[in-house]
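User: My collaborator and I are trying to settle a disagreement about how two of our proteins should look. Neither of us wants to argue from intuition anymore, so we agreed to look at predicted structures for both before our next call. Could you fold the first one, then the second, and keep them clearly separated?

Assistant: That sounds like a sensible way to settle it. I'll keep them separate. The first protein:
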Amino acid sequence: MDTTTLIWIIVGVVIVLAIVVVALLLTARGRRERRREHQHDRAEKMREDARETELQARQHEAEAARARADAAAAAAAAEDAKARAAEASMEAERRAGRVDDHRAEAEDLRQQHAEAMRKADDVDPYVDGTDARNAAAPSAAAHMGESAGDRDTVLEGAERRRANTDERPPTPPEGHEHTERT
């Protein structure tokens, strides 16, 4: 082999090596670009996932805040209901006290009425005092809460006593009105 051939072989190998190096350099740059693009795409996907996670976190926070507000509203409604119940209870007690007061006042007025009627019967010469008082006592008891049927029974009993004893009060003269209590 001669030196020229050897030189040409060396030059050929160097050219092939140069082409391979250039090809590697060009492909390395492309691979690097593709790697960068792939990394960029991966980063974008990670960013998108992070945005979605943040959005879900905000939604959960909003739901938690809504649940807290609902719980607070329910607690406030319960407290309001308790307050209204307490007010209603106090009002019922106050009214019950008023009922007792009215009942006692009515009893006093009935007693005053019975006393006034007794005094009027004592003064009236046409009223026999024993029968009128006997009839007045059951009548006052009837007003205290007995039923109308009990009252009728008491009145019928008083009328029977009068009929059995044949004691009737004298009739008042003309022009004088006397109403007997029932």
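The second protein, kept apart from the first:
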Amino acid sequence: MNQAQIHLALNHAPLFLSVLSGILLIISIIKKNELVKSIALFGMLAAALFTLPVYFTGEGTEEIVEKFGVNEKAIEEHEDFATISMIIISITGFIALLALMLRNRLANLSSVLVTGLVILSLASFGTMAWTAHLGGLIRHTELAGVNAGTQNENGTKVDQTNEKEGKDDD
């Protein structure tokens, strides 16, 4: 497998793990279930760990897809937001790891810590979802919207309607 294949194969795992873990953590609070809370914390840690190979195969993936004439601006936007996502999900994973290590020492984890993890897991999901969307725009220009037109190799928007009208006049 090359880096692009690894990147594409794993990139949805952190996205779904972060939202599912956040939902499980909310359920654990409502039901006061320590087992579900532990599963949620492990899910947050797993989301952060899955992010590592996704993030670090990004550069190799970029080199591969550049051969196909993709939009450089879209790659840069995806790359910039991926860094933000990596930071947020890493913080979430680190705090989840601490919570897992402290759960046996503290009968009930602090409600502030658990609430913070719910917020961080949802923030992780949000940033990962936006990063995924930006990544999709690199190869799937149809995701930009029906009236968005297309972009040339410099990232400049080209209105296809005007181009077609101009061709009819010739």
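Some points you might bring to the call about the second protein. The chain is about 75% helix and 0% strand. Helices lie at 3-10, 13-31, 34-56, 58-65, 72-102, 111-139, 160-169.
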